[in-house]
Amino acid sequence: MDSESLKNVLVKLQKNDKFKSSLVAIELFEAFNIYDPAQYISICLSALSSMINLELPHINVIWLVS
């Protein structure tokens, strides 16, 4: 599925009168990745790319795996 089709689905959900909730994008990242600078930068750029493409409020969560 390309990004345009996902964007079209999100737009239809937002314009639906029966759907009274707001949409938010949540991204989970493992905390292990923040120790390597290259992986951390990659995560940040990936999150930025999805923020720009989806045009939704965004929450990035760094998840500590025990």
SSE blueprint:
Blueprint: H1 3-15, E1 25-30, H2 37-54, E2 58-63
Parallel strand pairs: 1-2
Commentary on this structure:
The protein has 66 residues and is α+β, with helices and mostly antiparallel strands. It has one domain. The chain contains two helices and two strands. It has helices spanning 3-15, 37-54; strands at residues 25-30, 58-63. The protein has a two-stranded parallel sheet with strand order 1-2. α2 (37-54) links the parallel β1 and β2 (58-63). The protein is elongated and about 45 Å long.
| Range of helix content | 40-55%
Task: Report low-confidence residues grouped into runs of 5 or more.
Answer: none
What is the count of helical runs?
2
Shape: elongated
Rounded to an integer in angstroms, the radius of gyration calculated over CA atoms is 15 Å
How many strand units? 2
Strand order in space, largest sheet: 1-2
Distance N to C terminus: 33 Å
Give the ordered list of helices and strands: HEHE
Largest sheet: 2 strands, parallel
The computed structural class is alpha+beta
